[in-house]
Amino acid sequence: MLYPKKKLMAPQRYSIIDVETTGKGLHGNRITEICIVLLEDDAVIDKFTSLVNPECFIPPFITGLTGIDNTMVEDAPKFHEIADEIERMTRGCIFVAHNVNFDYNVLRGEFRAIERDFYRKKLCTVRLSRKLIPKLYSYSLGKLCTSLGIPLNNRHRAEGDTDATVLLFQKDFKPRSRGGNN
After folding, report:
1. N or C: which end of the chain has fewer CB within 10 A?
2. Are 62 and 32 in contact (CB under 8 A)?
């Protein structure tokens, strides 16, 4: 008797993302830096990081927090110049971030400003950590990484926060495949 061949599931891809912004609330918050790590299974297969010229003033409070100032982004690409790369890196992926709605909504706002749509499935590492590691005092990225022994270098910079989120996601949160070699 012939049995149909088992269909192999395509590997799931995740775009793990962090953005730094001008901090101007829901309307008017512009990206100053972005990092995207493309993860397939447990492997990093691509990475994109860039400062972004927000085309507006970066307040001193934000510079104090991130170290990103107006001079640093003066010659950086504007969002519309990197939008195609962001689209490519996130297409067909689950959009993962620590406090995902912030990063996702800021990116959607930037795409909307250049009259483009941006929709992705989302996954939040804050929500997952609350479910998988209950009763922690804080679920901030810094506190969570400290409690789990995950290095967090260059805090409040897109690449540093993204690298830590990748390790956090790989360590405990990525859905594991089930089954053996049947």
Report:
1. N
2. yes
Local structure of 181: helix, strand or coil: coil
Q: What is the mean pLDDT of the chain?
A: 89
From CA 155, how far away is CA 163, in angstroms rounded?
10
Alpha-carbon Rg for the chain, nearest whole angstrom, is: 18
Q: What percent of the chain has pLDDT over 90?
A: 76
pLDDT band at 176 (very low <50, low <70, confident <90, very high): very low
HSE (CB half, 13 Å, CA atoms) of 63? 9
Residue 17 half-sphere exposure, CB side, CA atoms within 13 Å?
Answer: 28
Q: Are 37 and 44 in contact (CB under 8 A)?
A: yes
Q: What is the length of the chain?
A: 182
Predicted confidence at residue 182, as pLDDT, reads 37
Domain range list for the chain? 13-124
Q: Tokens for 52? A: 């972004």
